[in-house]
Amino acid sequence: MERVFTCLRQDAPRLATGRNGEATRRSLGEVGSFGGWHCTLLCLLVAFGTIWGGCGEDTAGKGPDFDPSVNDGKADTASAGASFRGKIKFGVPVEAAFDESSHHMYDLTVTKIVKVDISLDGIEGSSLDTVLRVYGPRDSEGNLPETKIAYNDDGGSSLFSLITDLELTPGTYGVLASTYGGIPSPNQAYRLEAYCDMDSDMDMDGLDDGCEFDLALQFEPYLWFSLTEEGFRNDRIPHFAVEPGSDGGVSIFYALSYFRDYGDPTFGGMSNHPGDCEFLVVNLNAQWQLSHVFLSSHHRMWNDSSKWCTPSEMDFEVDDEGYSHPVIYVSEWKHSNYRNLKECDAGSLYNDHCEEGTLERVGIERDRNIGNPVEQIIDDVQLNENHEFYWTLLNFCGWQEPSSESSDRSKCPSAYGEIIDLWLNNQL
User: Fold this and answer.
1) Mind listing the pLDDT tens digit for each residue in 43-85?
2) Would the pTM of this model clear 0.90, i.e. be above it?
3) Segments of the chain assigned to CATH 2.60.120.380
4) Helix (H, G, I), strand (E, B), or coil: what is residue 310?
């Protein structure tokens, strides 16, 4: 028996909407309290065994599909062995291209019993016919068994591959991305990604991953951007973390992860720099109702205006389902966060500006949960061959600078790992 928490939304009062179902912004006093959330203990019996994803070996009309050797390490032909290409992590896609090898092997490590989905798709107009295989776990000498535990040919879109609900026990597994029949397909690009099932608890904190995502989505802030940000306000890849409190409450950290701070718009972008590690924190009480919101604003800089706010001090936006979200006013180009327009225009000694704008959510996704320091789900995130880190203490450059640890990151503001440590130790 393994006990994990599962997340249930109560039938909470719906909040006010305008005419024709359009959402309206109200103060918390006008719309009442938030819908309650609660966790109940769900006792899960996890059975050991093999689950096969997809439709099995579909060879109809296409000829035989050969299983390659997985341990000889040879550059392969149609019948030779797999070529090892590195590791994959949950929620972090790998984009590569087949070369002289038609069988690319990746290691996937799991630390507890989980169910996973794995997808293999062609990209950039690829005409690939792909095949996915999973082997493992590796033995004490690092070898994989030659017998696969999962296989899929055309379970995804077109001729691409998808394995679903594959149950894995702790260990390191080999995920083999191939072309059907091992047919050479040089320069054909593909995207490989592994997803963690929503019922698992990858960071082992007692809240299952589905519960954490539901909470982060339910209380996800809305961002008010000036219309002049139209060309680049979406230059961000938000991630999140959820930390249960000893008092029964929950704290949610939103790493906004902007590509750049574009500088002061009044002076043509002066003081701009790569990477902007602004963030928000939403705290829930023991009844899982909103209690406080932390707004970063030039955090730990000379003009730091960061602050904690109570719900009564903030505006809220009501979504299509009738649930409200805190509204954060984002300064033009510089992404500092404020509770209203007046404070924004007075921020940073009146150098920040918020003008007529548009609302959008932070933009988290289920596979961007970074976990916690003990069980790090995501640390290294790659984009355009550059890497940024959420736990490793390297300054955040927004995927704009070379990513080696020896590269110069002094022009970038600070490390998310340092900020997250302050959050976890109640030092914001």
Assistant:
1) 222 222 322 333 334 444 555 566 777 764 433 333 357 888 9
2) no
3) 83-196
4) coil
